[in-house]
Amino acid sequence: MFALPPLVALSPGNLNAQAAGEFLARVERAVAGGLECVLLREHELSERAFLELGAQLRRRVRHLIVHDRVHLARLLEADAVQLGFRSLPPREARALLGEGLPIGFSAHAHDAPEARAGADFLLVGPVLRTPSKEGLLEPLQFEGLARELERDRRPAWALGGLRPEHAAQVRERGAQGMAVLAGVLGSADPQIAARAYLDAWERAR
Question: What is the pLDDT of residues 133-186, one digit of tens each?
Fold first, then answer.
């Protein structure tokens, strides 16, 4: 069964080459707090800059997920690839990647089942209201998360507006963990934030 750690931190999505150093410093702080997994999803970086940042990130975290850039995943020795509705379909990505590298899909309540076909795991959201999805997608709330995890039994990580105090509700609905953006790498102190999420998840056992 595929498994990632219970906490996945997303990169901000708007990095440029000048901001990479500060981002890596924030990752190091979060790792000191127990973070093991980062999802790198920087669409604005050139291929070269993405590869360079991914290589530096690979040296700092135990698990690296590459978003969208399927062709760079093997070069970066990524642990998984994450796809969305603008990406290659999971089955086509599998044809390029071969077997062995897990493929994730960013799932929403309105997805057609075939959109997820071939994915090994899901990021399901947004659970709560979040600025990145404001006006685009209605939050699932915890009841909607439970319905999504009931209809699709693949391993799933919940995302969207989640704080440490939501860990018990997420875990009770059957998620394997939480994926967060502002909550960890966008927080005032990534080390304290990562520890707070992980401690809350353990208390929710």
Answer: 666 789 999 999 999 999 999 999 999 999 999 999 999 999 999 999 999 999
**If you average pLDDT over every residue of the chain, what do you get?**
94
Helix (H) or strand (E) holding 201: helix 190-203
| Domains contained in the chain, number | 1
2 inside domain: no
Establish if 1 belongs to a structural domain.
no
User: Which burial class, exposed, middle or buried, applies to 22 when counting CB atoms under 10 A from its CB (0-12, 13-18, 19+)?
Assistant: exposed
Contact 162, 180 (CB under 8 A): yes
Residues β-bridged to residue 112: none
Residue 107 lies in a domain: yes
pTM for the model stands at 0.95
Residue 80 burial class via C-beta count within 10 angstroms: exposed 0-12, middle 13-18, buried 19 and up: buried
Q: Which domain holds residue 119?
A: 7-203
103-122 pLDDT, tens digit each:
999 999 888 889 999 999 99
Question: Tell me, what amino acid is at 154?
Answer: R
Residue 42 lies in a domain: yes
Alpha-carbon distances, residue 198 vs 95, 111, 113, 173, 192 (angstroms): 35, 30, 32, 17, 10
